[in-house]
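For reproducibility, we list the full input for the coenzyme A complex.
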Amino acid sequence: MKIRKLKKKNKELIQQAAEAIVAAFADSHPDAWPSFEDGLEEVKECLDPESILLVALDDSGKLLGWIGGSEEYDYAWELHPLVVAPSAQRQGVGRALVAELEKRVKAAGANTIYLGSDDVTNQTSLSGIDLYPDPFDHVRNIKNLRNHPFEFYQKCGYVITGVVPDANGPGKPDIMMAKRIQ
Ligand SMILES: CC(C)(COP(=O)(O)OP(=O)(O)OC[C@H]1O[C@@H](n2cnc3c(N)ncnc32)[C@H](O)[C@@H]1OP(=O)(O)O)[C@@H](O)C(=O)NCCC(=O)NCCS
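The corresponding predicted structure, in tokenized form, follows.
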């Protein structure tokens, strides 16, 4: 596997990245990028020259996954999105993409990478309930019910820093995570 920056002129990989984001979120977040056009728009946004878009490719040059990062504060970048094609999941592609983004964001001088990971399909114990008045009590006792990626990020060194209750509708929160990279 090789990881490199996606270039605007690489139309074939841009298409594959758009297809991959639709396929990767079809089960867990079907409203996020329901069509190829939605996927393509997201890829194009991430190709902003101020941001970072990295692709993971197999030996034949086919796209396995991709990751985006953008500078949102003077010293903190947001990781968004992270996509591994369904057929390439659980083979270390996601971890490698996160590590490469961290390397580049660290070199850019940031202290922190943060992300939000939605739960809209009852994947964790934080969904389907009222998180008020003490969201942190629920966060402390979070359980992964159906393969929510928060555990993937924990394995990459990220911690849960909070939750945005009802971010995607009642009982559908966004789980916030961060990692110190310096
Ligand atoms: C979540 C995702 C990015 C993980 O990428 P991946 O390439 O499948 O993960 P890796 O193979 O690098 O996994 C690294 C570790 O995390 C674990 N892991 C991966 N996905 C996991 C999940 N959903 N739940 C729990 N653990 C998970 C792996 O088992 C592995 O653990 P190990 O080191 O103990 O063996 C990928 O499955 C994906 O694209 N999913 C759909 C889209 C998505 O949810 N993106 C993130 C939204 S915030």
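The chain has two domains: 1-110, 116-182. Residues 123 and 148 are 5 Å apart (CA to CA). Both points were considered when choosing residues for closer inspection.
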